[in-house]
């Protein structure tokens, strides 16, 4: 039986699936299986997967049912002691599994290991246009309160989860069309300790077309997740909701500024920033808020191409230090 089951849901992933599979095959820890859930793909996803000769890869095909259901199906097929989730367009550093398993060995009470993330923006041709690292969060142990405030794990491609921990919290919520990861991490955090690998090991790919069409969906799902989270939160943590809502509005402003830089999107970003500042005026002292205000002003003052160029220059230094080679 493999130590780790890597679950890759795939829907029309022909442009990225080979590279994503290779990022697993290049892991320094070799005792794994890949379970690919073909979620009703209509392109060449299956052909590409079939062309990769590796007996550790298993493929199961279903009608399209969405990301949460695909993950649930993958978990049901998994044989590993640990479950690693990986979206079909994301990447890992070669030492991702090795270091997360080491973190488990050093923290036997933990049920979830996570690392830091690179946000990798790509153009329509798949070329990397910008790469910037997530904040170096070091929350460990009981992280429920930290997660309630914001999803510092950032993507479903990040965590390595003890199968025993998954068995205690059940499946991903298929009614959520976005933010299903955050909902799941919160449920795990109510029962299990988390451990962090202090290294950027996940490359989270964001393409302009896919993101721009999902902004409204992501915003609505985030609100649903917040309501669900605070319905389950104990009374002594209800006061944190104002901070969560501040982070929600900053999150929405960021989505609009980056993926909807049209007149309506800029107006939406401005409204969300105003809401964040109204709820918590001290957020003006936060560097994230200050950067969002700067981006908003750039898009208000300069033509679209100029503002996008300037924002890319602001983010550019991270890419040169990442070691990413594509």
TrEMBL record:
Pfam families: Glyco_tranf_2_2. This is Glycosyl transferase family A. It comes from the Bacteria. One of its GO terms (molecular function) is glycosyltransferase activity. The keyword Transferase applies. Coiled coil: none annotated. CDD domains: Glyco_tranf_GTA_type (cd00761). InterPro entries: GlycosylTrfase-like_prok (IPR019290), Nucleotide-diphossugar_trans (IPR029044). It comes from Aliterella atlantica CENA595. Residues 5-251 form the Glycosyltransferase 2-like prokaryotic type domain. The keyword Transferase applies. Keywords: Transferase. Gene3D superfamilies: Spore Coat Polysaccharide Biosynthesis Protein SpsA, Chain A (3.90.550.10). PANTHER family: GLYCOSYLTRANSFERASE (PTHR22916), UDP-GLCNAC:BETAGAL BETA-1,3-N-ACETYLGLUCOSAMINYLTRANSFERASE-LIKE PROTEIN 1 (PTHR22916:SF3).
């Amino acid at each position: 039986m493999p130590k780790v089951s890597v679950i890759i849901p795939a829907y029309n992933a022909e442009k990225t699936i080979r590279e994503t599979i290779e990022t697993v095959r290049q892991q320094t820890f070799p005792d794994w299986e890949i379970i690919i859930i073909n979620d009703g793909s209509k392109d060449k996803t299956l052909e590409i997967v079939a062309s990769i000769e590796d007996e550790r890869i298993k493929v199961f095909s279903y009608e399209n049912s969405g990301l949460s259901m695909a993950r649930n199906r993958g978990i049901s097929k998994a044989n590993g002691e640990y479950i690693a989730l990986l979206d079909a367009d994301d990447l890992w550093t070669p030492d991702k599994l090795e270091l997360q398993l080491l973190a488990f060995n050093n923290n036997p009470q933990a049920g979830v290991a996570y690392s830091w993330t690179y946000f990798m923006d790509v153009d329509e041709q798949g070329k990397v246009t910008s790469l910037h690292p997530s904040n170096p969060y070091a929350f460990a142990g009981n992280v429920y309160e930290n997660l309630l405030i914001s999803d510092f794990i950032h993507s479903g491609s990040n965590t390595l989860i003890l199968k025993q921990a998954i068995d205690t919290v059940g499946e991903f919520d298929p009614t959520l069309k976005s933010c299903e990861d955050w909902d799941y991490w919160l449920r795990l955090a109510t029962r299990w300790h988390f451990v962090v690998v202090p290294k950027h090991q996940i490359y989270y790919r964001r393409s302009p077309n896919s993101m721009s069409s999902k902004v409204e969906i992501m915003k609505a799902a985030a609100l649903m997740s917040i309501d669900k989270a605070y319905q389950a939160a104990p009374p002594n943590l209800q006061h944190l909701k104002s901070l969560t809502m501040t982070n929600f509005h900053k999150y929405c402003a960021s989505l609009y500024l980056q993926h909807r830089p049209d007149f309506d999107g800029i107006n939406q970003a401005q409204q969300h920033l105003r809401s964040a500042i109204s709820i918590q005026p001290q957020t003006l002292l936060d560097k994230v808020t200050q950067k969002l205000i700067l981006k908003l002003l750039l898009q208000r003052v300069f033509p679209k191409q100029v503002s996008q160029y300037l924002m890319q220059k602001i983010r550019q230094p991270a890419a040169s230090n990442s070691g990413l080679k594509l």
